[in-house]
Write a structure and sequence with these properties.
Elements lengths: L1 H20 L3 E4 L10 H6 L10 E5 L2 E4 L2 E3 L6 E5 L5 E5 L16 E3 L4 E4 L2 E4 L10 E3 L4 E4 L2 E3 L5 E3 L5 E5 L2 E4 L4 E3 L2 E5 L2 E4 L4 E5 L9 E4 L2 E4 L7 E3 L7 E5 L25 E5 L16 E2 L2 H4 L4 H5 L12
Parallel strand pairs: 1-2, 2-5, 3-6, 4-7, 5-8, 6-9, 7-10, 8-11, 9-12, 10-13, 11-14, 12-15, 13-16, 14-17, 15-18, 16-19, 17-20, 18-21, 19-22, 20-23, 23-24, 24-25
C-alpha cells in the first residue's frame, strides 16, 4: 500500500514537472513573482527556431530599463504587456553618445520573423538632441497591436527592405523623420503625434519594391505649437508613402510633402493621398508631384494586397 501511494505521488510530481517544462508562457515581473525579473532574460531563455510553435512572454507592469535584442534566430514569439501605459521598455541612448550613430541607439532591436508585440510601451527617453531610435524592427511578418512608441527624432526605424510589419491601434510620437526606413509597413487606426515642426515619415523604399508605408484610418495629431508639419520627405529617391482615410489636422503644411532639398526626388518619390479629412487634408495647395488617388486606384491598397507576397501573409487574420 505504501509503495502504491509513493508511486502515485511520484507520478503526480512527474506530470507537474512535465507540464511546467512544456509551458508556452514565460512571465516577467521586475518584483520577482515571475520566471524572470527582466525581459532580456526571458527572451534569451527561448529556444532558437523552437519547433513547438508560438511562445508567449507576458510582462507585468513596470518600467524595464533595458536595451533589448530579439535575435533573428528567434521566431514565433509573442511579447505581451499587462498594461500598455504601465508596461514600459525604456532606454536613453542617442547618436551623440561616443559617436554611436543612429542605428545603435535603439531601445528594442527586433530581428526575428513571425513576432507579435502587444499592449506595451517602447520608449527612447533621450532628450531631443539628435537621432534616438525607440524601435528598430527588421524582422518579417511582425505585428504590433495596441502599443505606444515614444521618442523624438527617428522613433521607429523599419530597417530592412522586403520585410513586412503591421501596426494596429498604436500610438506613435516624435519630432523629425520619426517613422523611417525601407520596410513595407501598414499602419491601421493609429494615432501619430507630431511634437515639433518637421517631417512625419522618411521612407527609403527601394525602387523595385512596390509598397512602402500605408497609413489607413489613422489620426494625425500635433502639439499646440506645431504649425508646419510635412507628411514626409524621401530618405531615398523612390520612397513610397500613402495616407488614406486619415484625419489630417491644421498644422499640416499646405504643400504636404518635401523633396529633401533635391528636385530630382520629385521625379521618383511615390507619394499619394486618398479620402483624408480635417483642416490639413485639402489637396489644393499640395506639391504637383504627389498623386491624389481616385476610388478605383485606392482599391488596390488593402492589407491583403500589400502583404501577401509569396506566402499569403495576412496579419488581420492572425490574432
Amino acid at each position: 500500500m505504501k509503495k502504491t501511494i509513493y508511486l502515485f505521488f511520484l507520478l503526480c510530481f512527474s506530470l507537474t514537472l512535465f507540464a511546467s517544462e512544456d509551458s508556452r508562457t514565460i512571465v516577467v515581473d521586475r518584483n520577482g513573482t515571475g520566471h524572470f525579473r527582466n525581459i532580456q532574460q526571458a527572451i534569451d531563455s527561448v529556444r532558437a527556431f523552437d519547433p513547438k510553435g508560438e511562445i508567449t512572454i507576458f510582462v507585468k507592469k513596470g518600467v524595464y530599463k533595458e536595451k533589448l535584442i530579439l535575435h533573428s534566430y528567434l521566431t514565433n514569439v509573442k511579447l505581451v504587456g499587462e498594461d500598455r501605459d504601465k508596461t514600459i521598455i525604456n532606454y536613453d541612448d542617442h547618436a551623440n553618445i561616443n559617436k554611436m550613430g543612429t542605428f545603435r541607439t535603439y531601445s528594442f532591436l527586433l530581428s526575428g520573423n513571425d513576432i507579435t508585440v502587444e499592449n506595451l510601451t517602447i520608449e527612447n527617453s533621450a532628450a531631443p538632441m539628435g537621432q534616438a531610435v525607440a524601435l528598430f524592427v527588421e524582422g518579417d511578418r511582425v505585428i504590433f497591436r495596441n502599443c505606444r512608441f515614444l521618442g523624438n527624432q527617428d522613433t521607429i526605424y523599419a530597417g530592412r527592405e522586403n520585410m513586412r510589419q503591421y501596426f494596429e491601434n498604436c500610438y506613435i510620437e516624435g519630432t523629425t523623420d520619426f517613422i523611417f526606413g525601407p520596410s513595407t509597413c501598414w499602419f491601421e487606426n493609429c494615432v501619430i503625434y507630431c511634437k515639433s515642426n518637421s517631417y512625419i515619415t522618411a521612407a527609403s523604399t527601394p525602387e523595385n519594391i512596390k509598397y512602402g508605408y500605408i497609413f489607413n484610418n489613422c489620426k494625425i495629431e500635433v502639439a499646440p505649437e506645431v504649425k508646419n508639419m510635412y507628411l514626409g520627405r524621401p530618405w531615398r529617391a523612390y520612397a513610397m508613402t500613402l495616407f488614406m482615410n486619415c484625419y489630417l489636422p491644421k498644422g499640416i503644411k499646405a504643400e504636404g510633402w518635401h523633396n529633401w532639398s533635391n528636385a530630382e526626388n520629385e521625379k521618383t518619390a511615390r507619394y499619394m493621398e486618398y479620402n483624408n479629412t480635417g483642416e490639413g487634408a485639402s489637396t489644393s495647395g499640395r506639391v504637383n508631384w504627389v498623386k491624389i488617388l481616385n476610388r478605383q486606384q485606392a482599391a488596390e491598397y488593402t492589407v491583403e494586397n500589400v502583404f501577401k507576397g509569396c506566402d499569403g501573409w495576412n496579419p488581420v487574420t492572425k490574432k
